[in-house]
Amino acid sequence: MPEMLKEILKNLVSKPATVNYPFVKPEPLPATRGALSWDMDRCDQCQDCERVCPSMAIKVLPEEKRVEYQPFKCLFCFLCIDNCMQQAISNSTTLTAPGYEKRVEVFEIKKQ
Ligand code: SF4
Ligand code: SF4
């Protein structure tokens, strides 16, 4: 009992371990697996990312010079990032925003 009382008093005077979300948004941890993006200046359309993706979230269309990515299919396993020889895929610490529709994100090589 005295041990428990000590713990209760300690918790009463110490700062809370959690933040008052959504009024206070915690900083994402550096290792947070957030949204992916393609640098199309680096992408050579080899399709390796499409081949390794276990959830078929990536479609590389070399003839149309673009990549289609479906964030709601993505498992954030990062196999695509690890296997891209051109280091054209990167992630941020921003989590993919929720949505009502299964949107497709398109990344295109700029036409010259
Ligand atoms: S693996 Fe990299 S270079 Fe190849 S298509 Fe995917 S993003 Fe482009
Ligand atoms: S992180 Fe994994 S699931 Fe998501 S697109 Fe890349 S390979 Fe596919």
What can you tell me about this protein's structure?
A 3-stranded antiparallel beta sheet has the order 2-3-5, with no helix packed on it. Strands 1-4 form a two-stranded antiparallel sheet. The longest helix has 12 residues, at 2-13. It has 3 helices and 5 strands; from the N terminus they run H-E-H-E-E-H-E-E. The model has no long low-confidence stretch (mean pLDDT 93). The protein has one domain (28-108): Alpha-Beta Plaits (2-Layer Sandwich). Strand 2 (58-61) and strand 3 form a beta hairpin. It has 112 residues and is of the alpha+beta class. 20% of the residues lie in helices and 16% in strands. The radius of gyration is 21 Å and the shape is elongated. The chain starts with a helix and ends with a strand. The site of one iron/sulfur cluster has 13 residues, from helix 2.
Keyword list:
single chain; 112 residues; alpha+beta; Alpha-Beta Plaits; 3-stranded antiparallel sheet; two-stranded antiparallel ribbon; 3 helices; 5 strands; elongated; binds iron/sulfur cluster
